[in-house]
Write a structure and sequence with these properties.
The protein is an alpha/beta fold and about 160 residues long. Helix content is about 40%, strand content about 20%. Helix 1 packs across helix 6. The longest helix is centred in the last third of the chain and has 17 residues, at about 145-160. Bound molecules: flavin mononucleotide.
Length: about 160
């Protein structure tokens, strides 16, 4: 089984999340390829796909949209796809941030929900949960617990498709 983590990142925060997830998947024994969309990725193939983007103006980046639009639907249509984004700036207080992340999850103004919608329109199946990770300033840095949460989320996503 092979995992792909395809991500965009302007200031490096989403990149750090993607790298932490890749590390976790590899630790769990999954061969994992990291694909930085800035490097002009074509449609990669594998068995499980994670797609990540910063939220900018309530949306995913153009590079992320182009990537989802160019995904090989025949290859990916019956395979698990997960989406994640980074959002902010959220509170430096952990409890407050947790409830802000839950609120974001219920709304639509974030990259990950839009990514899920776009992929679904293309006939792809995006698995729950749609994942959000926090930055505490407009350009970062990531919240102190973001990488730990990203690793946990990657591990449980993998477990949900390996059963
Ligand atoms: C121009 C700009 C617009 C942004 N718009 C949003 C937004 O609409 N919603 C949000 O939650 N975060 C927004 N952010 C915060 C980004 O999501 C945050 O900086 C993100 O972690 C950046 O990821 P990156 O470092 O991988 O580029 C914005 C940041 C910038 C610089």
């Amino acid at each position: 089984m092979k995992g792909i983590i395809a991500f965009d990142s302007v200031n490096g925060n989403t990149k750090q999340v993607a790298e932490a997830m890749a590390e976790e998947l590899r630790t769990a024994g999954l061969e994992t390829e990291l694909v930085f969309l800035k490097d002009g990725a074509s449609s990669p193939t594998g068995d499980v796909l994670f797609i990540g983007s910063p939220t900018r103006g309530g949306k995913m980046t153009k590079g992320t949209a182009r990537f989802i639009e160019s995904l090989d639907v025949e290859h990916w249509k019956n395979k698990p796809i997960f989406v994640f984004d980074t959002v902010g700036p959220l509170s430096k207080d952990e409890a407050k941030r947790k409830s802000q992340l839950e609120m974001i999850g219920r709304g639509g103004k974030n990259a990950a929900v839009k990514m899920s919608d776009l992929a679904t329109q293309r006939g792809l199946r995006v698995r729950s949960p749609v994942m959000h990770f926090a930055v505490v300033g407009m350009w970062g840095p990531l919240a102190p617990d973001a990488l730990t949460l990203a690793k946990e989320a990657a591990r449980s996503a993998l477990a949900s498709v390996s059963r």
